[in-house]
Amino acid sequence: MAKMEHHARVIVERTAEQATAAAANLFKTIVCEAVGQRHRAHVALAGGTTPHALYQKLAADATSGEVPWREVEVFFGDERDVPQDHVESNYHMAQRVLLDHVPIDPSRVHPMPADAQDMQAAAEQYEATIRKAVPAEGGHVPRFDLVLLGMGGDGHTASLFPNTDALKEHHRLVYAGFVPVLGRNRMTFTYPLINAARNVMFLVTGGDKAEAVLGVLGDSDEIRKQLPAAAVKPTNGCLIMVLDSAAARLTGIAPAGA
Ligand code: 6PG
User: Strand pairing of 238-244 and 199-204?
Assistant: First the structure.
């Protein structure tokens, strides 16, 4: 097993379903703690396909009352340059699968305007909305209670893709730009905003992510610096990586209860 030098709490579950259930439990714990202490939970949701099952589970559990949805405020960690009702929209997926099924205050759901004509102005506007809603607590960067992230096979996370200028943004909290590998524009949280969070939770499943997961958790700086997800290191918060055994298979970390 590679020597694992990282700062993450790594949770490995045998199946994707079990990893999703573990992530749902952590989501509930983090949100309840935030609401218990600060009467509000500020959460940034992830996009892509992996979180779909998590959002389904949170929606299915909504009637249990375990999550104080009326005190939750939702933002999005990144978004594609499509309208909010487009099938590729991260907001559309979260709205359809989760937000339409929980008693969240619609005024506390903030879609990311990644299809705006003026993307820079839209990114600045979204940052202003975050700064207004999410306390920075003495610092100057708003602190989310939870930033939920996925990871691509190339180690990208949110829309922080390898070899893009977004990785070099250390002042703005929201960045909009062209992603050559996609041939599309994206809008994304930047590292300063992600790393200011109290909790950052990756949910990564599937064997196609195993190489990237090993790179992020491994101790090769050479490899890590090529993987944007490896630079997610909360300054004063918890980094949690929830994996299924397929995504963790190269790390040598055994699933819980194995
Ligand atoms: C997006 C996501 C992106 C995603 C990874 C993994 O907008 O696509 O923010 O970062 O988390 O690409 O995607 P999958 O979960 O679909 O594998």
Answer: parallel
C-alpha of 191 from chain center? 12
Q: Is residue 91 domain-resident?
A: yes
Does the residue 170 lie in any domain? yes
Domain that holds residue 108: 9-244
Domain count for the chain: 1
What is the rounded CA–CA span in Å between residue 75 and residue 116? 17
Tell me the best of 159, 164, 181, 211 to mutate to test the pocket of ligand 1, counting ligand atoms within 8 Å of each CB and taking the most: 159
Q: How far apart are CA 246 and CA 226, in angstroms?
A: 22
Please indicate, yes or no, if residue 195 is contained in any of the structural domains.
yes
Provide residues with CB under 6 Å of ligand 1.
Answer: 46-50, 78, 90, 150-152, 156-159
**Which tokens sit at 35?**
């609401």
- From the CA of 143, how far away is ligand 1's center (Å)? 22
For residue 73, the domain's CATH number is 3.40.50.1360
pLDDT, one tens digit per residue, over 103-133 is 999 999 999 999 999 999 999 999 999 999 9
The CA 138 to ligand 1 mean position distance, Å, reads: 32
Cα 31 to Cα 229: distance, rounded to the nearest angstrom:
23
- Average pLDDT score over residue span 88-104: 98
Question: Which residue out of 97, 156, 187 has the highest number of ligand 1 atoms within 8 Å of its CB and is therefore the one to mutate?
Answer: 156
CA 145 – ligand 1 centroid, Å: 21
Residue 112 domain-assigned? yes
**Residues linked to residue 146 through DSSP beta bridges, in sequence order:** 43
